[in-house]
Structure formats: structure tokens, C-alpha cells
Amino acid sequence: MTIPSPPRSELSKKIGTILHPLRWAQARIDAWVLRRVRQVPGPIEIARNRVYIVPTRFGWGFAVTIMVMLAGAMNYSNSMAFALAFLLMGLGLVCMHHTHANLVHVLLRAGRTRPIYAGEIAHFEVLIDNAAAHPRYSLAAGWARETSDEPACDVPPQGFSSVTLASPAPRRGWHQAGIFSISTEFPLGLFHAWTWAQLDMRCLVFPLPAKPGMPPPLSAGSGGSAGAGRSGQDEFAGLRDYQRGDALRSIHWKSLPKSISPMVKQFSETVEQALWLNWDAVPLADVEARLSQLVRWILDAEAEGRAYGLRLPGTNIPPGHGETHRFECLKALALFGQP
Amino acid sequence: MLPRPALTDYLPHRTLLRLLAVLLVVIAPHLWRLPWWEGAAVVSLVVWRGLASSRQWGLPPRFLKLMLAIAAFIGVYSVFGRVTGQNAGIALLVLMLALKLTEMRSRRDVMVVVFLMYFLLATHFLYSQEMWTIAYLFMSVIAITSVLVDVHHPGEPLPLRTSLRLGGRLILHSLPLMVLFFVLFPRIPGPIWGLPADAGPTRSGLSDSMTPGDISSLILSSEIAFRVRFEGAPPPKKLLYWRGPVFREFNGRSWNQSTQDLMDRTWPVAELSGEPTRYEITLEPMRNRWLFALDLPDPRQLPMQSRIDRMATVVVDAPVIERRLIRWASFTSYVLEPELRPRDRERDTRLPPGSNPRATALAQSWRTQGMGDAQIVDAALTMFREQPFYYTLEPPRLGTHSADEFIFDTRRGFCEHYSSAFAVLMRAAGVPTRVVTGYQGMEANAYGGYYLVRQSDAHAWNEVWLEGRGWVRVDPTSMIPPSRIESSALEAMAGNEARDRLGSLERAKYLLEARWDWANARWNEWVLGYGPEMQKEFLSRFGIERQRQMLLVLTAGITLALLLVGWVAIRRAIPPRVTERALLLWRAAAKRLAKSGYVQRPDEGPRDFVDRVVSREPGLFEPLHTVLDAYLRLRYSGEQSPTLEHEFAAAVKRIRRV
User: Where is the DUF58 domain (chain A) (predicted)?
Assistant: First the structure.
């Protein structure tokens, strides 16, 4: 477990180097190793030569305890105290091997990631496979060069577990997962064993929806039946589960106390008129603001159950609606202007 | 101020309860030795901590913890008069460990408690190192280690059996390393910085003065003073006098050592002849400053940190508080002090003026009859033998003129009375005489080929100085014929002979005791007695003479043992080898697909996976469907077809990178 440290000035960093030469050396070694970590689609088997191990501060504390005990045993010429000190010395050394063996030969694979909106936190699932006949305990995952609470999991024999790494995604587009570490201090916390890995994991980040308010432009293009907006003749068609991005006003508040998740009112389209959302028709100058506005309209249209199409420079998505259609549209917006 | 522990860092209730249980186990043996209020405080702190966790009570504020810590110091100081030293130090350590519970909330704090528990375990061995303590050691270490394992498992605590098994396995793997360290880690003779005054066992055995009653209390104790093992045959019984402190100052009632003698650093003059008897003694710690040896130990082959004093007693610099293995070479044929220094002659014939007039008169009458020194000795012994002197452990009390009353009135006593009265007679007649205390005789163990000397073998005898023969051992007590030994004393003395008449059950019990003592003797000799001397001797049998060699062999041994442990641990981590051909081929196919970025997801079956890949890469349709078909047929339909396997392998090779 690492403690988050506040930002430090240059001077205190220099003092830190003097006070903790080992930590400084460790940071240099880490930097060297991290430059050599290659991104692979997976799975990654953690080979023996890729596991690094150092004593934790509790490991050093344990060593000091043994030294004091040994000095006492010498002073009193006490054979049993010698025996205990030697047993603990052995325990420390054996623990090193067990910590190492707890990590080695597990298989890392990329799990699923769910698309998010810009500014939210991306969750990367990492699957840890244990093909051995014995379980692994307390394997933790964390990003390189970051100190935060690291989620940990046990892996049953010949099974797998998943850990989820969180990473804030401020911008739309593909959010690439960085180098992360899989580490363990099990069984005794005297040693910290870890390995660096980078799986080909990325999370699709949609632009942040704009605030509701601006109505979609009427007759925003051609193709199909051009446009009247909502006719007001929609018929209530039933309720469905809440999905992210649904407008607040479409939530069926009456059923909220009775159901586990909120329900959303759905209306069937009585007028076969599709809404065309056109890049050129958005009355905003800024690219990102335009994208955000388009996202908002898409979500609103989806919530209202209307068919909508998206027209971007170089992209034309014919009208439709539903989960897949919305995803296609949002993805196009997320990757707009990006290679 | 430490940062608040993260959520996963909080200690689960069950882990805490386990920790408290182990804490009680580790503290328990100390509880009987601590003042009652401390035991009560420790137990109530442990109980309170358990309840605080289950009832969600808050931990005490900082000033209260500070007050408790101060109170602990004051309490310990008021009982022991100090806060350092062995007993007070341990009392304080136990209290501080219990107080640590009041601020223990995260896993971090637990580490400190766990390390303290390991340390506390070592302190038990200052009080007892009997054979059973090794069982206690292993039990406790496994329990503490299991707690440590628990602490490092975030989230739900491990099942008790799992954590105990993991702890036990770690300890099991550490055992060979412990043995290697124990045998090969270079031992240096302690103490390094000196021992606290209250270290070690309480005093027992012979004392440094002889007052009537001292030895009779010892004679009733069957505790073991030391064990002896001879190289070759043991000497005859009449030579089995284990020399201890020698007394030459008499104040009319008790015999003492003089400070003059304690300061005397000269060696006795001795002419040794014949072959020495070689033997080794495992001496129980009795907090005495002397070592016991058969007359007369070779002054050139003394054990470490010891010297021989003017009266031929081997003395050590510091009281013996650890069991010690000592090798001796003793010459049973010797002339001790062929020439007596005039001042020694004066001191060894000195009596307090006016004491014991009747005994003095008797002795002087022998001298006026014209007897020589040797004849006077014989006259006194004849008197003890032929007149009605009795041996009893419950003698009548004696007054100021103890020798007078004993010789002429009561005539009942044991070795102290006889040796004291004899010495008074001899000194009155002008024969230099002193009192020697020690042990006499020994008892064979039925198994080990070694002998036991118990406290009940404590004895006092005399040495008289005769012209041309030096100091000669005389045992006036041995003059009493068995018919004049009272039955209670007989039982105490003659346990050995009595055993031959035991019934079968009692005999089995005796043999069991002998076996137990034999095991204890081995334990004492090989484990507890394994110090610098024994290590040197033991390792030299393997050609390891110097510390540098020891360290070299130790390093090599530890490296080898760690390789072995590492191999065992890694083997558990290695996936079992797959021999099923279909699975191997499927994995080969998956590996090829992974190069193009397609990885089978955990929620995907083989068919879904192939469908997904083919929907994106139609070019792979043919090989992948061949692979899928063969895999499903071979793996799940139980088909066995070499041709199908062959096709499978060929199709895998056709999966190209896209």
C-alpha cells in the first residue's frame, strides 16, 4: 500500500534523493524498465525474469527485529532464542520465494471496457488467469508512476479473476491504457514483487453532452422525409430500463420507488419523419462545442424514441435508432477529426 | 501524523479476533510471572479491543492513551524499582504491547504488533528452555505467521484453515534454513554487553559457606545437578568425589571462604601422575561461581573463562546461568601441595579461641600420646566408626560448641556434622585440615550410557595435609556403617539399590523416567549446550575449523536450501503440463490469432470467438473453421483420429497474420 504524497518542490526532491538513495535508485531503475515495456494485445504470461522484487519497509523492520533478537540471544547465550531468530531469518528468505511464486506464471489479458463520456473515469478490466493447480492471493493492479489505492483480487486455481484499473479520461477519442503493474506482497508483506505490463486496451470516450436547452434545428437536411420535428402525436408505447444518456424528463418517476433501476418512458413515432442532425447546421463555432451539442441531440432523440441520422463532414449515418445506432453515431462524434 | 488508512487497509473483525487470540497465547506464559494487576490489565485490554471491534466503539483519544502509557511506566517502576532489566523490561514490553491495541486500527499498526509478538516469544526462553518449549515455539510462530498472512489478504479474511496452512507451510519451508543457521552461524561467547542482575535461574545447589542444615535441604531434592559421560570406563566408586567449594575459615559454627582466598590468584602446586580420566559434564545452571570436577582436574586443560584457585577448585568469572557443557581431564592419582606454606599451615590449623574445649582436649590427648598426623586421622575415623555415631537427616540442634556437643552428646548428624567435627578435631591436634563440599557418587541412566548427579548427592568431606602425601581426602561420614544409617536417610541416599527391588509397574515408570531424562540430556547437550565450544568441536569433525569456513559453508548451504525452496514454490506456480493434443493445437491457433490482435475473451466459447474473428477477417474463414471443427470433435466428442489431428495441425499453420 502506498501513501499518496503531496506535490513537492525541487529542493525537497533533492533532499529526498539524499535521504532515500535507495528510493532514488529504484525510481531510476523503474524508468529504465518502463521504457522497455512493450504494448501487446495479450495475453502476457509473467515470466520469471520479468518479476522484480524488493523488501518493503516492513521487510526492513522484520530484519531489524531479527537482528535485535539475535543480539539478545548472543548476549544471553540462549539457544532457543537463537533457534527462533534463525527460524525467522529462514522465514524471511522463504517468504521472498513465496511472494515471487505468487506472481510468476500468471497470464494477463485485456478485459472489457465500457465507453464513457469525456471527463468521466475509464475503467479498464484486466483479467488475471491462473493455470496452476494452486490459488494466487492478493494480486493488485496499479498504474505505473501513480500512487493510489490499488484494487486486489485472489485468483482460484485454474480460473481467472478480474481487477479494474481506473483512469480519468478528460478528452474524447480513444483513451489508451498506460503501463500498469501487477504486484503482490502476499503472504507476509515483507517483500513487494511486481511486473510491468501494457496490454492493448483502449476505451472509447464520447464527447461530453452539452447542457439541454437548445432544440435541434428543424429541417436539418435532406433525404427521407424532411423535417417536421416532434409532432406531438406520439403515443406512449411503454417503459424500458434506464440507459446512460437518457434525458431526465423521460424518466418515469412514478415507478421509481417500486423498481430496482429507473424506468424510462418510450414513445412510438407516429410520424415517419427522421431527424437529421447535421454538422453544418449546429449554430456553434467551436468544434468541441458542436460535437457536444450533437451528442446531446442524439441522446434526446434516442430518449424520445425518434429516428435520427447524423451527417458529419466525410461521414453519413442514415437515420435509425436503438442502442447500436446510437453507439455508431456517438463513436463517429468521438473520433471526429482523429485518425 | 500518518494519513488515514485507505478503506481496504482497515482490519476485518475476524482478523482482529484471530490476532487477539494469538496475542493471548504469546503473552500467556508471562502472565504467571507478572504482577496480578498487570495480568488483569492486559487481559482486559485484549477483551476490550475485541468488544470495541464488534460493538463499534471508538478508540480512546490521544491524551487517554498517553495517560495509560505513563501509568504503565509508574506501575512497573513501583513493583520492580526500575524499568530496565530482565523482569521489569518484559513486564513493560507486555504492557506496551497490550496498550498498542488501543491505537490499532489498520494493517500497518498490526505489523508493529506482530513484530513485537515475535520478539516477546524470544523472551520466554530466558525463563525456560526445556524440551517442550520447542513445541510452544513452533505453535506460536505458526499462529503469528498465520495472522501475518491474514493481514496481507485484503477484503474477506481467509478461512482459518487456509491461513493456518499457509503459515504452517512457510514455517515448514523455513525449517531447513533454521537448522543450517543453527549449526553453522558462527557463535561467539557471550555476554556482549553484560546481563541484567536478575537474568538466569534462581540460585540453587551448594552455597558459598557451610552452615549445618544447608546440605540436608539439598539431599531431599532429586533435581539434577549435572550429567556425566566418561570416555572409557568410569572410575571406581571410591574416587567419585566431585570437588566444589573448599572452606578453611571456621567461626565455631559455620565454615566460610575467606576473602583472602578469593583474591589469591596463584595456582596450587600439584604433581600429577598416571593417565587422566576424560569425561564431559553438562552442568545445570545453579548461579554458582564454581565448576565441579573429579579430583584433580588438569590445570592445563581448563574450560573457557575459568581458572583453578589455590584450593584446587575450578572457579568461573561469572555465575553459571546457562547450562554448560564442560570437558575435563582429571588425574585421580596426584600429590596436591607437596610442600605446605607456613602461613597455610597456620591458617589450616586455626580454631576460634575457646571454642569446643572438650574436642580440643581429646585431640590434644592423642597428640600427647605421641601419635603422628596419620595416626591421629585414623584415631578420629576409628572413633566415628566404632562408637555409636548415627547418620540422620533430622539431627538435634547444636549450640555454640557444635563439635563438642556432636562428638560427646548427640552423636547424630550427616555429612556436614561429621566433616565439621572431624576438622575441629584435626585442627586441635595441629593437623592442617579443610572442608571440601561437592557431590559424591552418581547414578547410571538406563539408556544413554551416561550418569546423573543429583542435588541429593551433595556431600561434604575433608582434606588433611600429610607430610609427603600432600592434601589427602578423608570422608568421615563414610565411616558410619549402614546399620547406623536411619531409614529415611537410607532411602534418600540409596535410591539406586532400591530400584532393583521395584515391581514391574514401578520399574516401567522408572524406565520411562530414565528415557525422558535421556531425551532431556540429549536436548541439553546438543541443542542448549550448542555454544562456541561445541560448535567448534562439532564442525571440526567435518574439517570446518575457522569462522571463515563456517560462513562459507553456511552461505553455500543457505543458497542450496533456498534454491530447493524456490523450486518447490515455483513448481506450485507452474501450470500443469498439457498433454492433450487438441488443446495444444487450439492454443497454438490462439497464439497465432493474438499476433493479429484477436484474443479469446473469457465469456466467449471457441465458436463465438471464431465467429467474431471471421466476421472481421473473412480471409481466415477456411483455416479457422477447420480448426474449430477439429477442436470440438477431438476435445468434446471424444473422437480419436490421427488424421483429424493431422488436418488440425495443418490448418493451424495456415492461419496467417493479418
Answer: 239-286
**Segments of chain B with pLDDT less than 50:** 1-7, 495-497
Q: pTM of this prediction?
A: 0.74
Distance between CA atoms of residues B404 and B415, nearest Å? 16
pLDDT score of B107: 72
> What pLDDT, on a 0 to 100 scale, did the predictor assign at position B474?
92
The DSSP string of A51-79 is: -EEEE-HHHHHHHHHHHHHHHHHHHHT-H
pLDDT value for A220: 43
Domain annotation for chain B: domains and CATH numbers: 7-152 (no CATH), 209-338 (no CATH), 343-435+460-494 (3.10.620.30), 581-653 (no CATH)
Average pLDDT, chain A: 81
Q: What is the pLDDT of residue B446?
A: 72
Q: Where are the beta strands (DSSP E) in B401-559?
A: 412-413, 433-440, 443-444, 451-454, 458-466, 470-474
Sheet with strand B209-210: strands edge to edge: B209-210, B255-256, B249-250
Rg of chain A over Cα atoms, rounded to whole angstroms, equals 28
SS3 A255: helix
What pLDDT does residue A7 have? Answer: 47
**Residues B468, B338: Cα–Cα separation, whole Å:** 6
Inter-chain residue contact A87 with B174, CB threshold 8 Å: yes
Contacts of B190 in chain A (CB under 8 A): 74-77
pLDDT given for residue B642 in this prediction: 86
Q: How far apart are CA A154 and CA A161, in angstroms?
A: 7
The count of CB pairs under 8 A between chains A and B is: 212
Q: Are the C-beta atoms of residues A49 and A209 closer than 8 Å to each other?
A: no
Chain A neighbors of B119, CB-CB under 8 A? 65, 68-69
First CA to last CA across chain B, in angstroms? 57
Mean pLDDT value of segment A96-100: 94
Amino acid residing at B360: T
Is B562 in contact with A76 (Cβ distance < 8 A)? no
CA distance A258 to A262: 9
At residue B491, the pLDDT reads 59
Cell reading at A90? 529462514
Distance of alpha carbon B606 from alpha carbon B613, whole angstroms? 11
Whether A90 contacts A67, CB under 8 Å: no
- A115-149 residue pLDDT tens: 999 999 999 999 998 988 899 998 988 888 766 66
Indicate where chain A has its CATH 2.60.40.10 domain(s): 30-52+99-205
Q: Please give, rounded to a whole number of angstroms, the shortest distance from the CA of B127 to a CA of chain A.
A: 10
CB-CB under 8 Å, B118 with A65: yes
Instruction: Assign domain A30-52+99-205 to its CATH architecture.
Output: Sandwich (2.60)
Rg of chain B taking only CA atoms, in angstroms: 38
Q: Taking Cα atoms as reference points, which of B554, B592, B579 lies closest to residue B635?
A: B579
- Residue B400: how many other CB atoms lie within 10 Å: 11
Q: Which run of H or E residues covers position B640? A: none
Q: Are B129 and A80 an interchain contact pair (Cβ–Cβ within 8 Å)? A: yes
- Chain B hits for A58, Cβ within 8 Å: 111
Report angle CA A12, A14, A19 to the nearest 5 degrees.
90
Q: What is the DSSP string of B380-430?
A: HHHHHHHTT-EE-SSPPP--SSHHHIIIIII-EE-HHHHHHHHHHHHHHTT
Active site residues of B: 415, 459, 475
- Best mutation site among A98, A182, A192 for testing chain B: the one with the most B CBs within 10 Å? A98
Question: Do residue A104 and residue B570 have CB atoms under 8 angstroms apart?
Answer: yes
Query: What number of other Cβ atoms are within 10 A of residue A33's Cβ?
Result: 15
- pLDDT tens, residue by residue, B352-370: 888 889 999 999 999 899 8
